[in-house]
Amino acid sequence: MILLSPTFTLRQIRHRLPINATQLLQNVRPTHSAPKHTTGLPDPIEWLTLPRSLSPRKALMLLSLPVSPKHWPSHLEMASPLLATASAHFKSKGIAVNAIYDGIGDQTSFAAEEEYPVKIYWPDGYSRSYNNFNMDSISSDDILKDLEYTVKSLDVTEYEKPKEILVCTHGSRDCRCSDRGGPLVEALREAIERRGVSDRIQVKEIAHVGGHKYAANVILLPSLDMLSNLTLEHAPSIISHLLSPKPNTKIWAHWRGRYGLTEQEQAQIWDRVNPEKGQNTEKGKVHEERDKVELRFKTFEGELKVVNAKLGSNLLEVGKENDLPSLEGVCGGNLECATCHLYLAPSPFPAPTSEPSEEEDDMLGYALGYRDGESRLGCQIKVTKELSEWCKRGGVIGLPRF
């Protein structure tokens, strides 16, 4: 169990490999909006292999409930006859049905006469809304007609549609959903506010989506993609992906499937976005660039280490190949932790590297011993001839204590 003082935010609960007790009490970074302190780390999560396919459904129907997840029973249909009836009726027609909480409403129990806003989503971005959905609506001609819609594409065709992140926080069903989903909700909201995109992305909570063992689980709208095996540290990557999705990026490693598609169609999607393809291509380029250059590192204790590094590789890979201290990279270089943190001093002149991305800058909020203007993540710094020349002219890559 992790004990947090009242002044600590939920974002301070981090899922990474355990480190020595002497590393736990460190000031992180005084000028960054991410957490400033940590009191301890939870046990590492043993991630399971994702299936890459959800049960085939034509669309996803979501009921917006006025009751927050902390008041949901383990089986929500037992408390909401409307949800139970809608689920049975529409699932027989190939429609997945679930419930969400968008922060509107403070009821602690369900009314005898239920009536909620409802929306149905298809994987190409098409959707239909029903503001006053009740028992009579279930068999209405309008909904039955809408369900005849035929998907035009496997992907969203109009990506400027409103974007939402639905996080499963159904803790009464399985504690992993709230233990991991709750902190992820807070981290997402903090990151959205920090990046000034609250007018473009909303975070909502969703009931049981299946696969507690893969928690935290999220559904992205309008694409209907489910991402799993997530922690709060993935918040920056999720937001960047939702704003500008690209194939073969690292966040796709968490892709579990897409609602509204058959298993064969989901297999087509996975074949197209599988990040290992992009990594293999990148590794091929590195393999072709056999030239090596000289780089200089300095340990926390002041020991200078001169190593030969392959052009095109990154500094985390260089550190592992040369057994340099403090470059752990527990996430495998996937920009999901800060354990490849290092320093690029601005003297004798700034290192010839690109500026950190928003994702890297957010992840640096978890770096122990952060230094403003110097801290970078090694997995994001490529070895170049220019970087080697910088080292020859007096530049040194600093390694942190931990």
From TrEMBL:
Q: Which Gene3D superfamilies match?
A: 3.10.20.30, Glutaredoxin
Q: SUPFAM superfamilies given for it? A: 2Fe-2S ferredoxin-like, Thioredoxin-like
Q: Which GO terms describe its molecular function?
A: 2 iron, 2 sulfur cluster binding; metal ion binding
State the UniProt keywords alphabetically: 2Fe-2S, Iron, Iron-sulfur, Metal-binding
Give the record's GO biological process terms.
P450-containing electron transport chain
What the entry lists under InterPro entries is as follows: 2Fe-2S_ferredoxin-like_sf, Adrenodoxin-like, Aim32/Apd1-like, Beta-grasp_dom_sf, Thioredoxin-like_sf
One Pfam family, short name: Suc_Fer-like
Protein's name according to its UniProt entry: 2Fe-2S ferredoxin-type domain-containing protein
Question: What is the organism field in this record?
Answer: Kwoniella europaea PYCC6329
Species lineage, top-down?
Answer: Eukaryota, Fungi, Dikarya, Basidiomycota, Agaricomycotina
